[in-house]
Amino acid sequence: MSGIWKQLLNVFLPPRCLKCGRIVESGAALCPDCFNEMHFISAPYCQCCGRPFENAENNTALLCGECLQKRRKLLRMSRAAFVYNDVSKPLVINLKFHDKTENAGALAQMMYAAGHDIWQASADLIIPVPLHYLRLIKRRYNQAGLLAGYVSRYSGIPVNYDVLCRCRHTRPQVEFSGHARIKNVKNAFAVRHPEKVKGKRIVLVDDVMTTGSTLRECAVVLKKAGAKSVDTLTAARVI
Questions:
Q1: Are the C-beta atoms of 126 and 157 separated by less than 8 Å?
Q2: What is the topology classification, in CATH, of domain 16-237?
Q3: CB-hemisphere CA count at 13 Å for 32?
Q4: Cα–Cα distance measured from residue 56 to residue 101, given in angstroms and rounded to the nearest whole number
Q5: Is the Cα torsion angle 208, 214, 220, 222 positive or negative in sign?
Q6: How many CB atoms sit inside 10 A of residue 134's CB?
Q7: Sign of torsion, CA 143 144 145 146?
Q8: CA nearest neighbour of 103 among 61, 60, 137, 147
Q9: Euclidean distance between CA atoms 98 and 84, whole angstroms
Q10: pLDDT > 90 in the chain, percent
Q11: Dist. CA 217–CA 239, nearest whole Å
Q12: Predicted model pTM
């Protein structure tokens, strides 16, 4: 869009804050007040799972107790942009359920910044957590796919939308807790073209990490298909 037409559009349809609706200087952004209310996840955090620490030196490479006890790590590292709470929840819910697809670009910018460690360690392919086709028909779009597309644009790393599929229709994870979440997504995913992930460093993208059951199940099938490593990158994370 040319500069003059963009200026005219901003006069009649000024860009607004994605959360509160106040007029902002640029589109797909948060106003200063809403931005300052967000609880962004920054160092210090566990270098593996990304869980933030309350008391630690910012420049210290640390592992949380759970990651220290793991002999074999399924995921190379997990990162999230911000804590999922009452402040950030509307941004995610509006994207996921209320057709506010314009939120995807802003959230993906935050995700790209949060994924600094992943880009530094190098990655080859971005893959969104897929929806089952029945849910995709009902929702009309996959919010993880939208986020993955923008993250790919910002990072320059290619995205693949069809190599990972959800082969079993499952009930929403929000209906379960604890071990029931693991059971709900067990054997729910499959890799269509193993040759496209073999030897690749994969970045799994989703909107929210709650317990991580869905992301880990996706990682299991990707590793079985020959992926060299799997990282996860989400907009929000439940702490």
A1: yes
A2: Rossmann fold (3.40.50)
A3: 1
A4: 37
A5: negative
A6: 10
A7: positive
A8: 147
A9: 18
A10: 67
A11: 20
A12: 0.90
User: Are residues 19 and 38 in contact, defined by beta-carbon separation less than 8 angstroms?
Assistant: no
| Residue that the structure tokens 């270098």 belong to | 47
Q: Are 121 and 132 in contact (CB under 8 A)?
A: no
What would the DSSP string read from start to end of the chain? --HHHHHHHHHHS--BBTTT--B-SSSSB--HHHHHHS-B--SSBBTTT-PBPSSS-TT--B--HHHHH-SS-S-SEEEEEEE-STTTHHHHHHHHHS--TTHHHHHHHHHHHHTHHHHHH---EEEEPPPPHHHHHHHSS-HHHHHHHHHHHHH---B-SSSEEE-S----GGG--THHHHHHHTT-EEES-GGGTTT-EEEEEEEEESSSHHHHHHHHHHHHTT-SEEEEEEEEE--
Q: How confident is the model at residue 1 (pLDDT cuts 50, 70, 90)?
A: very low
- Share above pLDDT 70 across residues of the chain, in percent, rounded to a whole number: 90
User: What burial class does residue 88 get, using C-beta atoms within 10 Å of its C-beta: 0-12 exposed, 13-18 middle, 19+ buried?
Assistant: buried
Please give the structure tokens belonging to residue 138. 């009902």
